[in-house]
Design goal:
By secondary structure, the chain is α+β, with helices and mostly antiparallel strands. The chain folds into three domains: 1-33; 34-92 and 500-548, no CATH class; 101-493, Acid-sensing ion channels like domains (Acid-sensing ion channels like fold, Sandwich), CATH 2.60.470.10. 44% of the residues lie in helices and 22% in strands. The protein has helices at 2-30, 36-47, 55-58, 62-92, 121-125, 137-148, 156-167, 179-182, 319-335, 364-368, 371-374, 379-401, 432-453, 458-469, 500-515, 519-553; strands spanning 95-103, 110-115, 129-130, 135-136, 183-188, 191-193, 198-203, 207-212, 228-234, 241-242, 247-248, 253-259, 271-274, 277-289, 294-295, 303-306, 312-315, 337-338, 344-345, 357-358, 412-413, 415-427, 477-483, 488-496. The strands form seven sheets. Strands 1, 5, 6, 9, 14, 22, 23 and 24 form an eight-stranded mixed β-sheet that branches. A hairpin with a 4-residue loop joins strand 3 and strand 4 (135-136). Helix 2 runs antiparallel to helix 16, helix 4 runs antiparallel to helix 15 (500-515) and helix 6 (137-148) packs across helix 7. The two termini are 49 Å apart. The model is unreliable at 12-16, 243-247 and 370-377 (pLDDT under 50). Residues 1-10 have a biased composition (Basic and acidic residues). It comes from Macrostomum lignano. InterPro entries: ENaC. Residues 1-23 are annotated as: Disordered. Pfam families: ASC.
């Protein structure tokens, strides 16, 4: 009996491991013992329509599975790098530029003209007084000349400093040319006009300039008279300003610039109209439509500048004038002065109240000092002058090297108008008598109009005397004709080269290239991520509940 009982207990003990091993094997086959996340991943890889993923769990050997795992990881890396490059290109906003020719109503621009001689020699010779100094202008020029060059050594740099220093006093005396002394006759679109149709613009470098802004800008095109402006101008002074030793040298004639309606003329961007010549300017018309880093003109504030007489003028926005504002602010912060060679923003109209001066200004006390003392007491002025020159040079270097960040503060306009010029010149007509008679009649009409308005006529009388007695009088005149010969214009338009639909298409392409994934497979991945998130959340909740139960038992 005892023996049978012992045998039964032994057989029962042997049967328990067999049952346990069978249960473990069944659990292994059914996936029990694995974490829910791992089980979910395994099921996804075995059932997804994406290529290659099932081989990670169904490979013939461990090495085979590892190789496929590395292949898929490499493919994901390539896909990620390719995807980043696509988004980077999309964010850059590349554009294609399209150029087309079309028929348009030509819009006539503004035209500004300056005499290259800067001043009127006749008015300078009268030696008017500077009111604040109670000093004649010739004496002022001599003092300024001595300040900048105590050793009386003349060169172009000294002359430039002299001119800049003189600018700060020119609001007290007018020695520049007047419009009736420069513009003897004009003809616009077949209609006679005169100097009263020009408005004065005070340029920081050329001083008194005059701008023609027509009321009617959509003109007939195809002829010099029917489609443009013709101006006859008097060069006048044949001598350099100041003296032969200390002169401000210039090319005899005029400086002209063509610019958009309502914008400030930048005379340094213009062209020369030579004396004793007819200058013809044939205009082309181009509209530019920009997309990148631009702003609509309605959102851009007009810019205001103040001239040496204290007159504030508002101009349409331009990148150039916006940068002038930034440059003057930069000079004010760096050198505690503003430049005479750049337009003055309206915010500096009362510069003395802000303890700011022009960078080349020499005050009355230093001008009154003896010549020997001037060189010893000029350090502050010279420091500002050197600071000014260094700042201007630095600005030019940054702009030329395209390192400046000012473009972010001065955006381009999205719609711009540009005028292309073809300039031609020839001498006055050979028929001197006929030309002389035409100039005489034009001068006479201008003189009658000046007298009726109470304007000075002494220079006009001098012109008529020259035309009567001087055989070389024709050399003192110049003619400018500006017109357009075609109704065809150009439009330069930017179009986005990489749109959102292109990005979506390329993403679909690289999904197939790198991962063999379709739209259906993509949604399978989304579903997997949602399920993994849900499983992980439940696991965390169970762990927190178990931790709380252990804490209560403890």
């Amino acid at each position: 009996m005892a023996t049978n009982s012992s045998e039964k207990r032994q057989s029962a003990g042997n049967s328990r491991p067999n049952k346990l091993s069978k249960m473990v094997e069944k659990m292994r086959r059914d996936g029990f013992g694995e974490s829910p996340s791992k089980k979910l991943l395994k099921q996804f890889c075995e059932s997804t329509s994406a290529h290659g993923f099932h081989k990670i769990f169904q490979g013939s050997s461990i090495l085979h599975r590892i190789v496929w795992l590395l292949i898929i990881i490499t493919a994901f890396s390539g896909f990620s790098a390719h995807l980043i490059s696509l988004f980077s290109r999309f964010n850059e906003g590349p554009v294609n530029t399209e150029i087309s020719v079309y028929s348009t109503n030509f819009v006539f621009p503004d035209i500004s003209i300056c005499a290259t001689s800067h001043f009127s020699l006749r008015r300078y010779e009268r030696n008017p007084k500077i009111r604040s100094l109670n000093k004649p202008i010739k004496e002022l020029v001599s003092d300024i000349r001595s300040f900048w060059d105590p050793n009386n050594e003349s060169d172009s740099e000294i002359n430039g400093d002299l001119l800049n220093s003189l600018k700060s006093y020119l609001h007290e005396v007018n020695i520049t040319k007047q419009s009736q002394e420069m513009i003897l006759h004009c003809d616009f679109a077949g209609t006679i006009c005169s100097y009263i149709n020009f408005t004065e613009y005070i340029d920081p470098n050329y001083f008194s300039c005059f701008t023609f802004s027509p009321r009617e800008r959509h003109l007939l095109v195809g002829g010099e008279r029917d489609g443009g402006l013709s101006v006859i101008m008097y060069v006048g002074d044949m001598m350099n300003f100041i003296s032969e030793e200390d002169s401000l040298r210039y090319s005899k004639g005029f400086r002209a610039v063509i610019h958009e309606k309502g914008t400030r003329p930048e005379m340094l961007e213009g062209f020369y109209v030579q004396e004793h010549a007819c200058t013809y300017v044939q205009l082309g018309y181009t509209e530019e439509v920009v997309l990148r880093k631009c702003a609509e003109e309605e959102s851009l504030q007009p810019l205001e500048f103040v001239d040496r007489y204290g007159k504030v003028t508002q101009y349409r926005y331009s990148v150039r004038d916006c940068q002038v504002n930034l440059y003057q602010n930069f000079l004010n912060e760096s050198c505690r002065c503003v430049s005479e060679i750049l337009p003055l923003p309206a915010k500096f109209r009362n510069i003395t109240r802000h303890n700011i001066t022009f960078c080349h200004h020499i005050n009355e006390e230093r001008l009154k000092q003896s010549r020997g003392a001037k060189s010893n007491d000029s350090s502050s002025v010279r420091e500002k002058q050197e600071c000014h020159d260094n700042a201007i040079n630095e600005i030019h270097k940054q702009v030329s090297a395209k390192k400046t960040k000012k473009d972010s503060y001065c955006p381009l306009k999205c719609n711009n108008t540009r005028y292309e010029m073809r300039v031609m010149q020839n001498k006055w007509p050979n028929d001197a008598n006929e030309t002389r008679q035409a100039l005489w009649e034009a001068t006479q009409r201008t003189m009658h109009e000046a007298r009726s308005r109470g304007d000075s006529t002494e220079v006009l009388e001098e012109i008529m005397e020259h035309l009567k007695n001087d055989p070389y009088a024709l050399q003192r005149f110049a003619k400018l004709t500006v017109y357009s010969h075609s109704t065809m214009g150009n439009i330069v338009r930017e179009n986005w080269a990489y749109l959102a639909r292109n990005l979506a298409s390329d993403i679909g392409g690289i999904l197939g290239l790198w991962l063999g994934v379709s739209i259906i497979s993509t949604f399978e991945f989304f579903e997997l991520f949602i399920q993994l998130f849900s499983v992980r959340r439940k696991e965390n909740q169970q762990l927190q509940a178990a931790s709380a139960a252990d804490a209560e038992l403890a």
